[in-house]
């Protein structure tokens, strides 16, 4: 009879020992979790940057590049943009020979809303033209921070 059973049981004993050690470890449950935010969007969560109208790209100031063409400075929070000022450079008529759609660019989401009497873009927005080939935008005015007044059927302006 072979009584040399110590080598065959060693891995099993080691496994049981490790399982017992892992099951006995508990994390304290009285730990707090996460940060407490005292304002809606603290500065630490926002990144200074700008929106370039030529290609609707969001750029961060940390990238170290200068804005190109028409742009507006503001804060970036995830994929959302919050403008701080007005458009810098590039205002006016778009170049000739392009296929353009008149409308509004909603600055927070960079969504384009085609111009119509009942168009209701979400502020802040800019009126202008969308280039159908490049997707860029040519602003024709200032940043609007109030809701647009819809035109009534008789041509009068009314609040929406």
Supply Rg. Answer: 30 Å
Numbering strands along the chain, what is their spatial order in the largest sheet? 2-1-3-4
Number of DSSP E strands:
10
- Written as H for each helix and E for each strand, in order along the chain, the element string is HEEEEEEEEEE
What is the global morphology?
A: elongated
Q: Sheet with the most strands?
A: 4 strands, antiparallel
- Structural classification: mainly beta
- Total helical segments: 1
- Nearest-integer average pLDDT: 80
- Percent range for helical residues? 10-25%
Query: Which stretches are poorly predicted, pLDDT < 50 over at least 5 residues?
Result: none
Strand content: 25-35%
Would you write up a description of this structure?
- It is a single chain.
- With about 160 residues, this protein is mainly beta.
- The protein has a domain of about 110 residues.
- The protein is built from one helix and ten strands.
- The strands form three sheets. The protein has a four-stranded antiparallel sheet with strand order 2-1-3-4, with no helix packed on it.
- It is elongated and about 85 Å long.
- The termini are far apart.
């Amino acid at each position: 009879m072979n009584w040399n059973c110590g080598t065959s049981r060693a891995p099993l004993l080691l496994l049981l020992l490790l399982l017992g050690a892992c099951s006995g470890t508990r994390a304290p449950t009285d730990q707090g979790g996460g940060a407490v935010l005292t304002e809606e969007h603290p500065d630490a969560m926002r990144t200074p940057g700008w929106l370039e109208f030529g290609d609707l790209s969001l750029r961060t100031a940390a990238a170290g590049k200068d804005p190109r063409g028409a742009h507006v400075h503001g804060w970036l929070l995830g994929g959302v943009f919050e403008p701080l000022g007005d458009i810098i450079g590039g205002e006016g008529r778009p170049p000739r020979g392009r296929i353009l759609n008149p409308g509004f660019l909603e600055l927070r989401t960079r969504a384009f809303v085609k111009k119509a009497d009942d168009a209701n873009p979400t502020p802040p927005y800019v009126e202008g033209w969308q280039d159908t080939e490049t997707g860029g935008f040519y602003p024709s005015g200032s940043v609007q921070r109030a809701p647009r007044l819809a035109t009534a059927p008789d041509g009068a302006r009314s609040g929406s």
